[in-house]
Amino acid sequence: GHEAVLSCPNVSKVSLLLVTWKRSGGSFCPLSYRRDHNETTSLNCSERITWKYSPASEPALRIYPVNLGDEGNYTCEIANSEGNFFLFSSLTVIVPPTVTLTQDKSRVAVCQASAGKPRADISWIPASNHSSEEEFHHPNGTVTRVSYFGWTNSSFPSVTCLVTHPATNQS
């Protein structure tokens, strides 16, 4: 859902002839700019994939909003009078999980971190040996983790579920 900007190598703009962005594997539209004709070309590109700035001055690729299908390895090729220059960029997409905390009738607390990428970590405060976890892998690469905290025979008045994930800095 955020913006990704991939930059090209900093070469002399005076001698710039051609800039092309490609992605290895998967479906991606090649995006190119030819300076001598001041012409940009994009094949089957959506509005999400464009130049961040003017390709003549700064040929950075902009993807907005980013989705999981955009993950992969990208190549920027610049041709100028000195030769061809390649820059390889790897885009990794992370997705924050949706967190829910519920309690069932038998006093089992259920903490669920849904559809995160990578998977979220779940812990309990206070720490206990009375918890168990399940993990579900979804076709789109996200993971749902569920942790159960049994506190039927516990003297704790309450428990706290702690979910940590690289996409968010909050607990």
Automatic annotation (TrEMBL):
Keywords: Disulfide bond, Glycoprotein, Membrane, Receptor, Transmembrane, Transmembrane helix. It is found in: Membrane. Gene3D superfamilies: Immunoglobulins. InterPro entries: CD200R, CD80_C2-set, Ig-like_dom, Ig-like_dom_sf, Ig-like_fold, Ig_sub, Ig_V-set. It comes from the Eukaryota. Residues 1-92 form the Ig-like domain. GO terms for biological process: regulation of neuroinflammatory response. GO terms for cellular component: external side of plasma membrane. GO terms for molecular function: signaling receptor activity. It is a single-pass membrane protein. Its main location: membrane. SUPFAM superfamilies: Immunoglobulin (SSF48726). Pfam families: C2-set_2, V-set. Belongs to the CD200R family. This is MOR1A protein. It comes from Hippolais icterina (icterine warbler). The gene is Cd200r1a.
